[in-house]
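User: quick one, sequence for these tokens?
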């Protein structure tokens, strides 16, 4: 099914209606932040490498107002299974640290509130999002960055975009227990319409690359298999990469060359660790090549690199799953497809497929016919990062 992407104004309207129903007043602040899809550079951000994401037109909208107390009350319109969709917590103070807890969805909000540097005031807030939950397109970062943008309005302060991303990343580490890299929060903050963003995750410098070719579609296919990244797999991969770098006397895999992995082989380091390092080193190289290809409008080359990325994530990094592999295999056999791969942390979520405009319907038909699960499709243009919205 091709999902309709709601307009931001529609999400604001929904959130406003719900806010008024719950809190009996009208909100004075509205902000939004997008999810993201990563063209290439997967599991490279926490290795000081490069990533090449773009922001999506799928966004989290938050609306709310100061409430004159020291309490924050937040509601969500998301379908949260077995959890309350309303939460109340005190603002952090000298003798009261904010802690993560239940409902889990609220931890992203609490984490940002706890780490926000500014004179906070109690507030009421309602969340309404079009970013699919657990789809590997950064629904959590979009909640964090939207919340941060809301708090900037509430306190009349503005953080530097880089600091904003870092604080939201800290919120995720501390309140969701997910030791993520910087990519998601960075692109959600700094994405730009019609551009991908090459981010150097070591220096945190970034470079916008225009996406000019109107004939190429970015088709996102949700496998609708839900992953749980804060499970053991993500931290385990991260630790393996760090271990490989440390054994080679480096602080990260960024500066390691493929041939240097022979030293690990000689040390009889386990194959899994060597494979992880091989993925990261080759993926960093691919990401830089992909950025050049995009710059030169060479989508054929970009597609080839995207295919290689998937193979490496599947065989060396081992974060794919049968459903994602099946989606990728199906489209690789279709006319007009330049490349396809899984995106995000892995073990479920979405794939991205680069496909010529006139072939996209056929591609969706093939998937619907051959994929064993129920896919959802999104056709997405690179969109803007976080912003304050009008409530008029
Ligand atoms: C998750 C993390 C990111 C990144 C990707 C894998 O989305 O939040 O920081 O590590 O996985 O590339």
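Assistant:
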């Amino acid at each position: 099914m091709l999902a309709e992407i709601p307009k931001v104004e529609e999400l604001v309207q929904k959130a406003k209606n719900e806010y008024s129903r719950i809190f009996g007043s009208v909100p004075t602040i509205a902000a939004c932040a997008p999810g993201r899809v990563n063209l290439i550079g997967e599991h490279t951000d926490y290795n000081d490498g490069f990533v090449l994401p773009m922001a999506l037109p799928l966004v989290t909208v938050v609306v709310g107002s100061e409430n004159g107390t020291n309490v924050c009350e937040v509601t969500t319109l998301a379908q949260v299974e077995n959890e309350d969709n309303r939460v109340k917590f005190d603002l952090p103070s000298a003798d009261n640290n904010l802690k993560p807890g239940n409902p889990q969805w609220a931890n992203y909000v609490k984490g940002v509130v706890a780490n926000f540097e500014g004179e906070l005031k109690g507030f009421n807030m309602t969340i309404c999002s079009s970013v699919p939950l657990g789809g590997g397109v950064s629904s959590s970062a979009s909640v964090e960055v939207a919340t941060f943008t809301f708090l900037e309005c509430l306190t009349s302060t503005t953080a530097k975009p880089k600091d904003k991303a870092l604080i939201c990343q800290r919120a995720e580490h501390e309140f969701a227990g997910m030791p993520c890299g910087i990519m998601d929060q960075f692109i959600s903050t700094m994405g730009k319409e019609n551009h991908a963003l090459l981010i150097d995750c070591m220096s945190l410098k970034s470079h916008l690359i225009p996406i000019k070719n109107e004939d190429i579609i970015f088709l996102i296919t949700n496998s609708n298999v839900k992953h749980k990244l804060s499970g053991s797999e993500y931290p385990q991969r991260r630790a393996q990469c760090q271990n490989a770098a440390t054994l080679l006397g480096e602080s990260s895999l960024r500066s390691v060359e493929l041939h240097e992995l022979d030293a690990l082989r000689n040390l009889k380091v386990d194959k899994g660790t060597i494979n992880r390092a091989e993925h990261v080193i080759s993926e960093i190289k691919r990401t830089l090549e992909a950025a050049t290809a995009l710059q030169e409008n060479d989508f054929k080359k970009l597609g080839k690199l995207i295919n290689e990325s998937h193979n490496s994530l599947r065989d060396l990094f081992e974060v794919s799953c049968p459903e994602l592999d099946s989606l990728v295999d199906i489209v690789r056999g279709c006319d007009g497809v330049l490349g396809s791969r899984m995106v995000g942390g892995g073990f479920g979520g979405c794939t991205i497929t680069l496909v010529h405009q006139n072939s996209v319907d056929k591609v969706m038909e093939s998937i619907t016919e051959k994929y064993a699960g129920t896919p959802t499709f999104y056709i997405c243009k690179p969109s803007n990062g976080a912003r304050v919205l009008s409530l008029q």
